[in-house]
Amino acid sequence: MTSFLLTPGPLTTRPEVRTAMGRDWGSRDPTFVELTVSVTAGLERICNAGETHDCVLLQGSGTFAIEAALRSFVSSTDRLLVLANGSYGDRITDIAKRCSLLIDTLKWPDREAIDPAIVDQYLTENPHSYVAMVHCETSTGLLNPLEQVAEVVERHGRLLLVDAMSTFGAMPIDLQTTAVAVLVSASGKCLEGVPGVGFVIARKELFAASRHPATSLALDLIDQWRQFHVSGQWRFTPPVQVVAALSEALQWLEVEGGREARLLRYRTNHAVLVAAMEEQGISAYLDSALQSPIIAAFQMPADLTGMFDRVYSDLSRCGYLIYPGKLTTSETFRVGCIGVIDEAVMSAFVTAFAHCRMGIAMEEISHNAFST
Ligand SMILES: *Cc1c(COP(=O)(O)O)cnc(C)c1O
Q: How far is Cα 24 from Cα 227, in angstroms, rounded to an integer?
């Protein structure tokens, strides 16, 4: 049975996208070189990269692309400020530490957005050359105020690196009006491709050859960029089928009506989900003002506390895969609203959830009757 992946990725994809992987491509063949160029151009269009930014594709999942950006652009004489209010923000700190970068982290509780005023104050007093943040903290679904933080970082003359993994292709990001120096995302989230390729869209001057060498060979974006521009080639074996699937997925984004139409579908998914869960007495973890339409975290209700594995397996038998919470302080579970799913799927999921919950309650009653 095929399942709906109500997760933060990999996601439910279209059959056409999966079918696009059903052939072989020579990586040096002109048809694949063309495919790479058109995918890159398509990604640049989505965020209005214009003449200021270039996109570089990279093998691997999103985390590889984040590490590549840190290893390629941030040097040992830079200072990086990480703004973190969840586990993906913490992951940036982790990666930066492994890269031996000079870093500081400003942290917020996972139910609070990054506060641009605090960033403003901090940058007034500190010399950090780079600031890094996550657009949507997929661990909770919290949407951080990208435009406001970008305005502050630009005013201080610093460079902003954004993990837009779970927003690119759905939430608006305009690189001509929002001062993002480095944007990182991947194939398998709102773009609805299959996982396996990440990309970094960065200001052109950051690719200039005279800069310090990257501290990684495989993750060197400047070398990868140069190779794409000199010969159109990937430096190392490209995930050809993944790129073909991404190309197909980008065409389906157009068919759907572009980024705005996709966002509208996700918003509807999210609204249907949250309303129906609340009707069952299950409350969203976040204040609705902070909530993105990408993924929703819910407080585990008292009758299901400690039973995530059972809830998971019951739901998976019904064809829905959900995700555990990513919080240490409170038991939550997450339901993704992205991927090739619509409000009918969401409604059916919520009904299945109610049935599973009732089934578990009945089992508990009979179990308790036995044991007394
Ligand atoms: C998915 C995601 C990543 C990357 O995770 P991978 O497992 O490497 O794909 C990074 N940041 C955010 C916010 C994400 O949602």
A: 22
